[in-house]
């Protein structure tokens, strides 16, 4: 499911030239087409938690997968920008829900040891999907990429038909027999937990119900500390994660590659996705050995450095040494260095993104969100992520047009620095 989302996340990078060249899209319409995926995820996140609490994750995913399938069909058969943009909006709608629901589903059925790995697995799955999209996009048309996505969604839906709903949700609905059957189905995951841990996961905490405390103390004990504080931490990390530059770095790296005669601009996505995949795999190993707070501090330093160095090299190449002049750039060693240095910094950013913000943000959602409010909480966190990402797709091009691309990366570095300072309060 997340691999399929990754395919659609990276869908627009390798197909840009073909869509612009066939006259189906103007540059402005293509920008709308790209941001429609994030916009759809933003819309779905607002209602995803409520829908899953009402219908259950299994039923909700089966229903919304039909929308994703219809969206993929529009991408396959669409012959105009409107139908294809609607199709991308629908697959984005499914992506926003499926990402939060995948975390919630895992957190409600898995043991603590499995949950701790899932944040990295989610990030790795997204990158695998993006790599598939970037790689195949070099050889097949955008219509066949959409066919691949559609087949994966159909396969996922058929699998979910045979999976039970989570025991916690079934028990909350009063279906104890079905909850016990579901628990037996997930026995391999539950067997590592003690019975007390399982009961805690399936029942509400009532340890303070009979204690003589004030109303404000009850609110603090029941809601503020166990519910709002984890939600605030997750939202804060997602804000800085989405504001650190990912939505802008990929198109920038494509532009940089296009300006270099030594590289094919279509491999820009691979330049970005492969380091991200390596970072996610390394996170999977490291998070079991050191504190997530220490890891976040270290990787944020590299995020600040990569954005800051990108800003500096772009400023030097365009304003100081005027390397945009092709004759100068070919003759000056400094310009040649400044031409390729940003690609190194892009790769450094991509690696530390999934080694830090990218994986930790998802990992914490399954780790610290309150189990009885995790569906609504996950929807709020995902809404924050998609909303900031969408704003980036709209604001960054405006800032670049008026102040230059180095200003965008300088702002990203400042945002990462603010996130670094605030981490001491997590």
Describe this structure in words.
The chain is mainly α and 426 residues long. The protein has a single domain (2-172, 220-425), classed as MFS general substrate transporter like domains (Growth Hormone, Chain: A). Helices cover 82% and strands 0% of the residues. The chain is built from 20 helices and no strands. It has helices spanning 2-9, 12-21, 27-55, 57-77, 81-109, 112-136, 142-161, 167-172, 176-185, 187-190, 195-202, 215-243, 246-258, 268-286, 292-320, 326-331, 333-355, 357-368, 374-403, 405-422. The model is unreliable at 192-222 and 326-331 (pLDDT under 50).
Question: How are the SSEs placed, and which strands pair?
Answer:
Blueprint: H1 2-9, H2 12-21, H3 27-55, H4 57-77, H5 81-109, H6 112-136, H7 142-161, H8 167-172, H9 176-185, H10 187-190, H11 195-202, H12 215-243, H13 246-258, H14 268-286, H15 292-320, H16 326-331, H17 333-355, H18 357-368, H19 374-403, H20 405-422
Helix pairs in contact: 1-5, 1-6, 1-7, 3-4, 3-5, 3-19, 4-5, 4-7, 5-6, 5-18, 5-19, 6-14, 6-18, 12-18, 12-19, 12-20, 13-14, 13-17, 14-17, 15-17, 15-20, 17-18, 19-20
Transmembrane segments: 30-52, 59-79, 85-105, 117-136, 142-163, 222-240, 267-288, 295-317, 337-365, 372-391, 403-422
Subcellular location: Membrane
GO molecular function: transmembrane transporter activity
